[in-house]
Records
---
Amino acid sequence: MRHSFSHHVETIQVPVTDIWPRRVQENFRPILNIQGLCELLQIATNDDDKASSSESSSAKGKKRSSSPPARRHRSTKRAKTVGGFSVQRGESEAASTDSREAEDFVWPGMTFPNVEYNPLSFIELFESTEVVPVLQHIFEIQYTNKPTIEDDIPASWKIEDEHLLEILAEFQSRITEPRTIDLGDVVLARYCGRLVVTSPSLKTRSSWMLLLPSFAPPIDLAWHGISSQVVEDIMMACFVLETADRAAMQARLEIVILPSNTCDVGQNELPFRLQLTTNISLRTPSIYEPFPRETKKKPLGIEDAQRRVLEFLYPSDATTPESYGGATNIPFFYSILRPAPYLPSPSIEEAMQPSELCPTLLPFQRRSVAWLLDREGKTATPNGNIVPKAPAAEFSFWDKIEEGNTTWYFNRLSGMLSPSPPEDAPVLGGILAEEPGLGKTLETIALILMNPAPPERNPSLTRWDPEARLYVKAIKTSLIVTPPALASQWADELAAHAPSLKVLIYDGWSKVPVPITRTQLEEARSKMLTQKDKKSKKKNSSESKVKSKSKKKSDEDMDVDEDRATNADETEVIDWCTYVNGFDVVITTYTVLRSDFNVALAAPERPRREDVYYANVERPRSPLVMCEWNRVIMDEVQMVGGGKTEDMVSLIPRLSSFAVSGTPARTQVADLIHVLKFLRVDRIISSTRLWNRLITTGFGAAHFAALFQNYALRTLKSNVKEELTIPQQTRYLVGISLGPVEKHIYDQAVEAVLLDIGLDARGVAGSEGWQVDGSVLRSSIRRLRGICTHPQVGQLQRPGDRLYKPGAVKTIEDVLQNMRESNWRTMMDDHKAKVQGLVRLAQLQNRDEQDENRSQHALNTLLLAEKEAMALVEEAQSALDKHMAKVSTNRGDGPRELSDRGKGKERQLSEPLSEDETSEDEESSTSPATEEHGKKRGALQNRLRECRIALHRAKFLQGDMHHGLGPAHSADEDAAYAAADAMRRDLLKGTEEDAMRAMDLLEHDATRKKLTQDAFMIEVPFLDDSGIRALMKKYHPTKAERDERPQPHKVRLHDRAARSQELIEEANEIMDTVLNDQSVLIWEWRAHITSLLTQKLSPGEGEADGEEYQRTLDNQGEAETYLQSYAALLADRRQAILNERTLLAAHDAREQKLRNTKAAMNAIQAILADAVLTFSEDVELQPEHEVLHTQLSAKRKSLLERLNGRAIKSILIDLNASATQIKQTQDAEKLILKDIVTDLRQFIAEQGALMDKLDADLTLLRKAFNQRILYFRQLQEISDSVAEVTRETTIVDALLETSLDKDELDAKLNRTKARQRYLEHLTKNKDDGIQDEDEESCILCRCEFARGFITHCAHVFCEGCMKAWLLRKEGKTCPVCRVPIDPYSIERFTVGQPEQEKPPQRLVNGEPAPKSRRQISYNMIDANLFSEVNLMESFGDFGSKIQTLVRHLIYIKFTDPGAKSIVFSAWADSLHILQRALKDNGIRCLRIDQKSKGESAAKVFKSDPDILVLLLHGERENAGLNVTCASRVFLLESVVHHGFEIQAIARIDRMGQTRPTEVYCYYAEDTVERNILDLAARQGLSLYTIENSAGTINVSSLATDVETKVVDSPRKKAQKGDFIFKMDDMLAILFPHMFEDIEYLLPAEDSVMQSAYTEDQSSFSGRDTGNAVAGPSRLSIRHGTQ
């Protein structure tokens, strides 16, 4: 039990508002209730008098002794004044006298608030439950009456003070030493966040006695992870526990009256003190219960209170490591880990070398193996024997606490108490986190050899596994789980270093070669027995000698495994556990784990009915969870992450677990929870909330260190450099200057990023209240980083796509071409929009009645629109001509004259391909290039037509304006209308010709002319029934014969002939009443449709009456109605003949299928159902058309009703059946029926041929109809284009809005035109390969120059003129074309060799933009080496960076033959592009995900001397691989997460490396990549500064998680990869000057990259082109914020 004491000085003059500012209406004295104190003092003294009297009466005559003050007696008046206190101890004064005297003093009115308390709660608590005293604390409170504010003490307070002093004076006058008076038990209550001492003895007044002073020993709540500020006070924390029935509080109040000479009058001390003794006890068993769940809306604070109290009672002796810098991050994690301790004796060290291991372990590796053995519960004796170690206490957050006679266990992380120690089983395993390259794989193999499973561990041992929820069998095997790229490497390492170990590769549960479930095992045994029986029978049927020979031969030919599996004993068929127990090691991958997860889970338990029998269907489970592995080793454990892989890992039963990785935390410390979950150590943490407490608090840092020091081992190369010899590594930076195309794309992307995030180039917000979207900023920076490598990064699909598809890899020339085409399309769209805007403006001007000259103004605007439209048409026509000439050149047949029409896709959109025409080009040319050219041609033709429509619109409306100007302009009006009409006819020419041709076919087609109505009319009766009638007459029976039973044969012959006669008559009737009537109707409708479809498309000269267009539309509607009915009628005729309808006819007629009728009537009911009339979108459905459709349908349906579900073919089938039933071959009736059947078959065939002709004729009708529809559609489009303008606002507002839109569109069009000229300029230079002579002289000064600038409008200026122009007021536009200039996108170039001068500085509003002068000394690639690299010849153009890397690899190929290199990139697209570039240049390379002849890429790369480059993904494939055969690493971009970088570098900087290694990090100058490097250098994380560029990497100092575990503005989906955590870092990458120290932000000079070579060599950072070298511009002006 802990005892504590605190002294407090309180003034009783504190008003309520000083403590609770909002309680302005309260007037009580919160610090001390003077009236209540006096009352308790009176009660206490009266009790003393009674006790004294009782003692006196029991003395039996002895004289009662009394204290000296009791002998003095004050007067009655004085006694009244002091409130009736009995100061004469022992006097026989009645109690009633005291009462009267007390009533004589009138206390001032004062109302104390009511506080809730239970005066007996602590008594009941102590009596009803078991409590353990843990704390006694004494409050000593000295009170003063010093006012807090002068002259502001209420009068009532002064009266109380005087009365209290008078009472105390009486006591002081009779004492010489402090006197203590017990005031009784008190109860603590809470009021407005403070504790109040209340007394249950106060009967008549408020129970409020005093405000308890705070008792808060110094503590940093945030350091301990305590969120509640209330529990900082120990007493308040105890009170919270008491309210939760977890603690009990008991308090007693005493007053100490001081002699008058002991008070400090100068400090206004009152002559008394109060002593409050509090006793705190913990209540059992409720203190052991889990904490109740808390929410943000309802915080209870019980957990915080308990942790606060217990930490005060039992402080921890854990110390925070010195390396803790305020955050538990990855550097701190690495700093706390330690290497394995030294072994106690050389013999033990010698014993750590397994005899079966081929390599000899280094001393530090043997120490690590000893640590691994210790983590598996084994140790080595002094003589070197491996034995189980003595049980030792495992790491735990539980501390044993002795409190009196009670022992309990305190969890310092959770704050829980337990009466018994935790029963967690010891955790076997740990984290092998040695630095990459120190042989973790070899140490793991040594562990497997050193500590094999004992012989008695076999599948006969089973146990229930609660995680997997099944009985598992013990096996001796170790399971190794690794990334897919490392599986083959593990197999190779095991085969090379431990050949005695048997290894199995596990590829998933579906590929297991043995039975898994019991059912599968029984089926395999049954199959084996069946095979044995067959072999036995075969042998028994042969002779004994032959039998012997065949048996011998069979035994010799039998496979070894098959022989073992099909032994005579059926138990030789083994299950999975027995099978895998025969191996020492099983290797699988994380991918396999994810695929096995669903079958690894136990089947969900569902409720079942008791009275139902359920089949016990055995569900297959993953073989990985069916056995208990000896150990499970997770290689590169940081790859586990969460999700299915983590869940699957937790399900696998095992004895011990080891996590192996040089960087066990993927990107942040929080990732370590996945590792702990695999080790099953997470149980001691128990929840994510406690894990967060462990890694986010200073209190948790000490326990975090203790936890991982117990379970993890880490050896650094710097720790064992005396034992290790790894060749020197040097790291270089390679700066690449982007080419003009790449720089242009990058600048455009930067502008888009600034627009998206709402900042200008200086980082200044463009609007008030700006807030950046972190996810947008993060994705924008990622896009910029990708462009630095190649514009297509992030846009590619998988390789193997066809040429010209979106996923195909493009060269920079292709990218430039796409940019030109895309910008040209944008320019044409803007230009067309400008023309349309001008036309709209003219229409609005013409409707402005306030403008007297509105027609003239509108005409002027239309003339301008015509001029723009003509330029638009010329541009579109020129583009089409160039494309066709290019196509002709590519085909090799030279240019050919273009006509208005063409075949196939050459036809304009206004001239669609007819249905019966096919293009020879389309049939013969199916290559992707031809398809692409065809699509482009069609798009250009469509655009040309749109431009012509815009021109027609402007010209037509000019006629309207001339009309409005009066008769004087009639000639101009006629000319305008005539020109517009000519344009309209030209636009409609193609479709009009197609329609006329289709119409001519209807009138002059020879096939149609051969079709006549007579050919379809059938002569009836078609079938001759005279022979049948003669038979009927011959067999006609008499009445007697008819009545005879059974009927004679004659009667049966007559009836059979009668049935045949009925069928013949039915066929003749159908032909007469249905088919012939249908023929008449068909011919009538066909003639009418033809007449409708051959009418003129447009009226002739002098025939127009204004209604011709409406009549034409009506005719089209009538024609479509007739066409639909006509198609249905043809289907009806086929139905009448064949009893079937074509699918097309059924679809066109929209027949409804009725399924609730008999099959015999189904077809006829469907035909008779009302068909739905539907028109094409170009023909408006009119009511008269619906009426006409109903009438036509009624006509054809009336004919169908006559069929009654029958058809000619139905009758044919019935007649043929009747003939077949007659057995006699020469029977007369049979012969007649055969002839009739033959006639019907010939009839059906002839009618079928005629129907085919009608179907072909229908196609011609449809074609004519469609061509006419297309013609009228385009005519309608042209008509709509000249419709009246619509508006929703006033004419003035509409004019203003249109004018503003026009101005904005003009500016945009100027920009796109300028950019198009610039792109054309780039294309021209790239195609010609020479410098334009005009570029060697400035447009302004006409002087030659060496250094100049080119604008996006393709105008060239010298540097001096450009700088002078930009500083002028009018320098916002180009001096030549007045196109607005974007200073940030101006391209700088030099003529001839680049000069060794600094680039000009950026300007913003005429002033230099902030530029850092910080000098960072990087280790750059040697200038001479880089110059030689750039002189290497290479094929292709895949961007400056990739092409330079290709030349670098070519240079290595020639200067260091056979040397192998590794290339890392953070983007898969970069690797695909690089792979294409290397292939084009004859450098064999391999991606890690590629296999060759079943071997892994890593193994092929090591073994094949011709493969010189291995391509790896910087995130997914940067860990674990041992590629010491390579000596160079190339990083294609600067990285943000340096853990990725370290892992990548460690692939070659490791044990087994025999050559000095080099690392080259490529980056693009003047881009975010350079800013990323500078940011890392400022943070001390760069690997490429002069001081960090050589030798071993200090991983602990370089590893970082950006000092946080929380991603700023994270996405909903979990983010992975090389992305940036912090918002400040992202802004620092885009705007470096915003986060630079002010001392470096001076405008004197630019910051220059300090490299390992001299300044005059810095020009070699870009490619040498020989002529003009384009590069980024540093000259820019930004006029205001955007």
---
Amino acid sequence: MNVMNSKVTSYQDEAVCTLQIYPRFAIKPGQGCILRVPKEATATTVIKTAVATLGMDTSKPYILVEVQEYGGEEWVLQASDQPVQRVLLWPRKAQDKHPQSDGYFFALQEGSYDGSIQYDVMTSVRQEKVAQGLANRGFVTQQPQEYDDLCNLPELTEESILGTLRHRFHKQKIYTFASNILIAVNPFKFLPIYNPRYVKMYENHTLGKLEPHVFAIADAAFHTMLNKQVNQCIVISGESGSGKTQSTNFLIHCLTALSQKGYTSGVERTILGAGPVLEAFGNAKTAYNNNSSRFGKFIQVNYLESGVVRGAVVEKYLLEKCRLVSRGKTERNYHVFYYLLIGASEEEKDEFKLLRPEEYHYLKEDQAEMKHEFRRLHQAMEMVGFLPPTKKQIFSVLSAILYLGNVTYEPKVVAEGLKVGPDRVLSAISDLLKVKVELLVEALTTRKAMTANDTLILPYSLSEAITARDSMAKSLYSALFDWIVLRINHALLNKIDLEESVPCLSIGVLDIFGFEDFKTNSFEQFCINYANEQLQYYCNQCIFKLEQEEYMAEGIIWHNIDYPDNIGCISLFSKKPTGLFYLLDEESNFPQATDSTLLEKFKQQHQNNPFFVQTPVRVPAFVIRHFAGKVKYQIKDFREKNTDHMRPDIVALLRSSECSYLRQLIGANPVAVFRWGILRATIRTLAVFNEAGRSWAEKHPGNIYAILFISFLNISDLGLGSIRELHAKVLQSLKQFGGEVPQKLRLSTISIVLNVILLFSVQNLIDSHSLKFIMGLTQHNRATRSLLRLHTKKKPPSISTQFQASLSKLLETLRKAEPFFVRCIRSNGDKREMHFDDALVLQQLRYTSMLQTVRIRMSGYGAKFTFKEFTDQFRVLLPKEISTPQQDITNLLTKMGLPSSSFQIGRTKVFLKESERQILQEALHKEVMRSIIILQRWFRACLMRKQYLREREGIITIQVLFRSWRYLRQTYRSRAAIVIQTAWRRSKERAEYLKKRENLKAQIGSHSYSPRVKNSATFPGPRRNPTIKISRATRVQEKWNASLDREITDSNELHHLDEFLGNQMNDLSTRSKVLSETEKIFFLATTQFRDTIKSMYSISNPNIGYKDLMSGYQKRVASLAGLKKASEVPLVVNLFQSVLDGFIRGELKRLETEPCKVKERNRRKSKRDKCPDGPLGHLFSTYQVTIMQSCDQCSSYIWGMEKAFMCSSCKMVCHKKCLSKITVNCTGHCDRKKEGEQTLHFGVPLCALVRTADSVPFVMEKMLVHVEMNGLYTEGIYRKSGSACRAKELHHILEKDPQAVSLDNYPIHTITGLVKLWLRELPDPLMTYSLYNDFLYAADLPEASERLRAIYRKLDELPPSNFSTLERLIFHLVKVAKEEAHNRMSANALAILFAPCILRCPDSSDPLLSMKDINKTTLCVEILINEQTRCYNQKMEEIQQLENAEAMAINQLKLRRQRAQNKFVLMLRIISMYLYCTVQNLFRLWFRNELAFRLPEFEQDSSDAENMDSESLVSSESLLEDHFVSLNSEGQY
């Protein structure tokens, strides 16, 4: 798109000024208009004047844009803005008349009706020269050089770090590296850099090789875990509003995408669905963040050793319960309440008794538009596994919590106490919670006090009642949140996690609340900031202390770097016995203590502590000096919030609820609650069943079914084992009364009850074992559940104690893993989009010690190896014999030219900088590739050497034989010449002798000799005419050759040929009971030939010559006859050729009668099979979006839980409506060739070789058909290689004109070699690169059935052209494997040969790692061949049974006709016609039922499921009818 510039020329005149406007949609460059407007003219006036002057459409909306610095800054003028006043603010040079290229101008462009604006940045701004020219001319300040890694800064200061972050932020580059630490500046705006294409871009790349991104950290953690087999963790830190939650979502999304899990149980889908659910129930809008996490969470994603996700665990910390009942003016309650009230349907509003948001006391803030969020929440909950009844129960509890806020209190007029109301609110709460109104009122207005001898009921005061009401709401919501986390953990649980022997790898992502400093800070901020102190201490330990201690221990040269240590502040909180937490617990246990006494105790104990700042006496607050600054905490409600337990009266009320779900929420032990639920459901089921059975048995006393219920009346006294015995006895008694037990009784109500009883043992449901496991993993469940143990004398732990325990467990988990750090920075305090506040950012950089962090990363060594690890990883680069590792490693690093300051050798470790480690890694990769190439050369040389020796030996043998033959031929010719000469001389002498004797007889006049003697002597033997038989045989041979020149181009002709040969074989078997040797060979060879014909049914457009069929039949006969019966081969071949000639003549006559029908059917079929081409080579498929992304075509948002289209090759994402607008070619597939260009067949994507979705490339089909016709009996057909010269020649001809080439002129091994070459040269293999890891995982599954289903599910995801070609190839390999006895090619041998051709690893993969996957790829291909072989054999057996049944029916009809007497000829003819129709229909019905009963169903996973299609069935039925008709005509006499 051409962007039109505009410029303004301003003349300082008293009345008017001149403006020059350039529309951005102008057709000609430089086209614009000059306007003279008054100084007070507004933007609206200028726009109207410019539109009228330029003659543009006045119905469209327009806007006026002020452009500065060539588009570096653009400001849209409002309607009341004055353009002339804006000009006066420009530089002096820009105000005068200036050329167009100076960069200050006004632009007129179209606006959208929805108010959005399409900004158009000039291309020249992106060029460094233009920007530098602007800076030199004084228009803009000098821009700093861009660095994506702060460790590369030439001068390290706070100003340089801040300037780099600012410069990148304004260019919408929010991520920056500090070595392996990622700094993320929150833009408060969604950027389109999180689509799947970016996940693929950063996959398997070294950290720092590409632009900084959060996906780079995820990829680095994932591959570090796989390479080192060590757990990893990603710590995300930053203050509130810095974007931690969003970064966590992106990390989880990338980690699940990298796992390449494939089809299995959908754990990744569950993990991605858990995020929106937790955000809805645990996030809320605050003053600093619209989506602030009001709880901390640690998501641990578990992996198998192969890198496949196997499960996850979510642990939550300190939910902010007080937000439910009170919050700041600009803040809101939790998101889920607004989602429910705004997005619920009318039916749901009536069911949950929902009101408008402003009618709730807990929700009196303004709400945003959230109609779609409720639908997305529904989808996310379904992904996690929440059933619709469970979701309704959750929403009912939420509605009850909102109604609790509307409960009001009034003093009673007569008696003591409070009156609670209104009645409609109490009734709604009672209906939603399934509790009695009287008990609810009692719990909200009174409390019970236990004395030594009695229980006192005391009324609440007004303040106490309000506190009790809010306490009930908070406790109920907290219990609901804990239960949701528990169910999410169960959904994420994998059965492998329950087995301790299975090795575990994990990546943990910590998203904990950020540092908070509000106007009013309370107990929640107190705990949150303590957690941030602990997290900051952990980061300092990992980055500074442990690093420098390791340098000192290894004895390398190092100068310590000072860093701020916050251990003193942590001690202020948690040191025994005077820590703030311990003092808080002491005061919470004293009945007479107050918040004021607590504050006095704080001041008294820590008056000399530098981290505790004293406050005036009358101020109910204290100040703590945190690492991020001073924070003032209000002491109000500290004690109450620390002991915020669920009151006993409220627990008793909720336990009296009729809703089992509510009782489950407040249960002290989920395992015990679960067991009681099972027992209660079982007892109720038995009771209901007993009552129903008794009433039914009384109504039907004589019915045999009543015995079942009468026998089951006392089932409650039986155990589960006795139930099964009772079932057996009942069935036995039924047999005595009614004989055979009906199938209906076998599935009687007894079985239904047994299924109900054993329901909870199903694999995917909750069981006690999994619950115990989850409870042991999550610290917060163990702590919070203890709050409900009210029957024990020991007091439950306080909130601060629970929080410290869970935080200690978290830090222990983090210390066991290798950390990656993501520092999130809040760009401004007003939540403005793309606004960079220097003061706020600098403050965050200071308290996170970013300057010291970058300094230690610049001076330190990011890569550390022990000597053994270094020698193991870089063994290829080191000498063969390593005597002294230190010296050899030093020599290697020096030899590679690394500077001495970039590495050091310690006592036990090697220290390298990250850049030098990458250089070393690249050198290792090059050396490995060089070694692989050398090995390949040697291997090829050995193969060629062996081939050369074999050829030389063969040539020598041929020469010896030829010389022997030539010598013997010369010898025999000499002897023959001598014999001929002797015979000729003898005959000559004989003739002269006889001539003389005749002359002598004539002279003496004797006539006693007969002339026949002469004739007999001259021409001995009878006279023959040899030309008759020879000429006749020649004519027959010419006739046969002419008929065999035809080709089969229709699959129906194959059906007809198969049926014709079947009829001939039936006739042969019925005519003679004892078959001769010739007939036996003919019968067996023809049977195998028919199997080959049947296997060709799946070829959509066959091109098979009868000569090829005849040649294959002749080879088959020769193979079956062997050497002993070689004389029978010509007879069998002549017999088959005569049969084939008869079929060809009949087929020609049939085609003459219906040529148009075949053409029309083929035309319709080709039209039906033709599929539309993908847009520009893309292969799109739908998928559900889990995180907000952007459309690559229109750049608009794709919201979470929506459907989008993604290209499986280049990972392009777009809306469905944007498919027709795509103009970018697919980078993963080549475009189809344009018409008129030369067609290539090797090394071209399949999408460019096929015309329809289910067709096979012509070259591939031609070669496979030729191999099937001529090479199935060749030994080592695919193992042996053909001549390289002939292969190159055939390759060239196939590339040029594949239709004209005759494959009969080339050896079979040359053609099979080209088949493998064609597969290897595909840019994307048949089993594509994108599904490579999925096939490996499927082949690695333990169970055979699960492995087979996994492979076939991934086959369904292949592109249509790949699927059809792979299906044809596997079917060909099945035919080759069936002739293993002759060609010595088993399924395993074929899989070994073809796995590297059709299932090869991507080019970007490590060649050493890909060698380990050879066994898996071979197994995957072998499974396909074996499964298709099984399906093929099964179908052949079914077809054989059909033919046998047909032949049986025909023979029976023949026998009946032969036994008929002559006097009933006419009657029998009529009856036979009637019987023919009746028997045919009955036979078809019986045979189909019999076949359905005796034979298994066809496998849908088979690649040849289309063999027995509708056409084949129709042709078989028509053939049967022809036989009946022909037999009927024969019976007429």
